[in-house]
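Continuing the series of single-chain predictions for the mutant panel. This is the parent chain; the variants come on the following pages.
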Amino acid sequence: MATGSSPAPLAVGVALILIGIGATATSASIALDQYGRWGARFFPLAGSLSLIVLGLVELRSMRGSAALNRRYLPLILALLFLSVAYVWTISVFGYLIATAIAAPAALWLFGIRNPVGLGAAAVLCPAIYHLIFFQLLGVFPPLGRWFDLMDVIGGY
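Parent structure:
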C-alpha cells in the first residue's frame, strides 16, 4: 500500500500484528497429533505468522506517514470482534456453522452487500474449505461442544 493511501497503514498494520499475535498464541495451543508432529497446528500457525509479517510490511510502507484515518477504526474493531466470535462459535457449534455465519459477515464488513453473493458465501465457503482442509489435506475438523452439523450430515 502506498504512503498516504487509505485505509491508514498504521491502523491496518497494528491490527494485523495484534490479530497475528493472538492467532499465533492460539495456534500454538493446538495439540500435536498422535505421533508428536505438528499436524493440524501447521496451517493456522503459518497463517498467523503471515499476519504478523503482513502487518510489519504495512507499517514499513508508511515511511514517516503516521496519519491515522480514524474512520476505519470501527471496521477494524468489528473485524477483530468477528474473528473472536468466529473462534468461539467454532468451539460450540463446529466449523461448518461458524464458517457459514462468519464468511458472509466478513464479506459484508468489506463492502459486499449483494444478498445472493452473501448467501453463496454462507454455503460455498464452508463447503470449499471443508473439501480442501478436511478431505484433501486430512486435517481433523474442530467439532462443536453443544452441537455440530457434522453429526447430522454424517461426517467424521
